[in-house]
Amino acid sequence: MTSDTFPPRGARKSLAIAAHFVRRELRNRYLGSISGGLWALLQPLMQLVIYGFVWTYVFKMARPEDVPIVPFLALGVWPWNAFSEAVMRSATAIQDNAGLIGKVAFPHGVLVFAASSASFLLHGVGFVVVVVAVELLGVPLRLAHLPFALLAFALLFVLALGFGYLFAAVQVFVRDLSQVLGQLLPLMMFTAPVLYSRDFLPERFRHWLDWNPFTFYPEYLRAELLGTGTVGAAAQLAALALAVAVCVLGYSVFHRLDPRFEDFL
């Protein structure tokens, strides 16, 4: 084999290590579980049924632009579940593997990457299944726009990965961070249009949603697949820039603190 093969040997080795840890993460999550990975699909479905019942019959929430409430919620809840689970699992990825880090030499960043990737793989498959199921049940979706929705899902992964690297590095030194995240993430969900439309808020409060980095994703997915509202090119570019910036910042902090991890684990 020549030395100019692509990808380079070092890159192939890194990819192989990352793939191994992703498989390990998926296997460990559902080891001993009766339902296996099926629970990753069933749990959000149950959540959607509960939200749909409460929003329709208890709170009697008006349907945004006459869109059925369940697909409206699905396009907010499913991406949120992927994002929040990826961030929470990534934040403790280094701490949870302290024993492995002390025994085996490998790039520690793959632990964060594996935790985020496993969450998005599971919820990404579930997202596609639910979108197709909604279409088969007679709710008109713009399936031709599904590739754009999946690109947004991939961009959300980049954002979650950046937060994951940042929080995983800090968690090694500040062990209370994961507890704080457990309180902040629900607040982040309720201050983004996951369970409601921006139009339901008083007009003076609507612009505040733009400060939440997650706001773009449910609004974009609903615009693409349900045709509710529009998301301009400026908002798309801002979301792309923010996701890349957070990922670069998170990895930079992780890389800088990485040499000191073993001293504090």
Question: Describe it for me?
Answer:
With 265 residues, the chain is an all-alpha fold. It has 12 helices and no strands.
Descriptive key words:
single chain, about 260 residues, mainly alpha, 12 helices
Topology:
Blueprint: H1 9-30, H2 39-58, H3 69-91, H4 93-96, H5 98-103, H6 109-136, H7 146-173, H8 177-190, H9 203-206, H10 216-225, H11 233-257, H12 261-264
Helix pairs in contact: 1-6, 2-3, 3-6, 3-7, 3-8, 3-10, 6-7, 7-10, 7-11
Report the biggest beta sheet as strand number plus sense, adding barrel if it closes. none
Global geometry: globular
The residue fraction in helices comes out at over 70%
Mean pLDDT metric: 84
> What's the Cα radius of gyration?
20 Å
Number of domains: 1
Proportion in β-strands: under 5%
Sketch the topology as an H/E string, one letter per element.
HHHHHHHHHHHH
Distance between the termini: 41 Å
- Broad structural category: mainly alpha
SS elements, strand count: 0
Annotation field: number of helices: 12
Low-confidence stretches are 1-8
Q: What would a concise description of this structure say?
A:
The protein is built from twelve helices and no strands.
